[in-house]
Amino acid sequence: MSTGSMEQLYQQVILDHARTPHGKGLLDAVATVGESHQVNPTCGDEVTLRVELDTTAPGSPRVQRISWEGQGCSISQASVSVLHDLVTGADLAQVDDLAGTFRALMHARGAGLDDEAEDALGDATAFTGVAKYPARIKCALLGWAALQDALIKTGATTSQEDA
C-alpha cells in the first residue's frame, strides 16, 4: 500500500472513532474504579476517564470497563476511543505494555514502529502521522495519561511512567 493510501486509511480510522467514539458516556462508579480528569492546557482538550477493574480474575487485575466523557479535537477524542478498545479486558501488565508502545509511537516522529509493535496497537497505529506534529502529540496522549492516573487511583498499580 502506498504511503498516501496508508495516510488516508489512518485519517479515516481517526475520523471514524471521533464521530462514533467507543466507551463514551461515564458509567456509574463502583468500588474498584479509578477516575481521572485531564486537560491539555495548550489546546483545551479534556477528558474524564473511569476505569473499573476485575480483581477476582486469577493473576493480575483486568480492565473490566472503561468509560469517559470529553471534548476537544478529533485526535484527542479518537485516541480515547481507540484506547477503550485496546485495553478493555487486558490485564495491568498488558495495559502497561500498550501504553508504553503507544508512547513510543508518539515519540517516533512519524517513523512508525516495528510490525510486532504496530500489530499490538491495532487501530492506534493510525496515530503514526500525528507524531510528526509535536503540538498534537499531547492531544493523542491525553486519554493515556488519564488512564494511567485512574489506574493509580484504584490502588492496583503505582506505575507513574511519563505519559
Q: Can you give me a brief rundown of this structure?
A:
The chain has helices at 3-19, 74-87, 92-106, 115-121, 134-154; strands at residues 33-39, 46-54, 62-71. It is of the alpha+beta class. It has a three-stranded antiparallel beta sheet, covered by helices on one side.
Topology of this protein?
Blueprint: H1 3-19, E1 33-39, E2 46-54, E3 62-71, H2 74-87, H3 92-106, H4 115-121, H5 134-154
User: Which bin fits the share of residues in helices?
Assistant: 40-55%
Class from helix and strand fractions: alpha+beta
Low confidence ranges: none
**Averaging pLDDT over every residue, what do you get?**
90
Strand order of the largest sheet: 1-2-3
User: Total number of β-strand segments?
Assistant: 3
Separate helix tally: 5
Taken from the alpha-carbon principal axes, the silhouette is: globular
Q: Please provide the ordered H/E string of secondary-structure elements.
A: HEEEHHHH
Whole-number radius of gyration? 15 Å
Separation of termini?
Answer: 31 Å
Largest sheet properties:
3 strands, antiparallel
Could you tell me the strand content as a percent range?
A: 15-25%
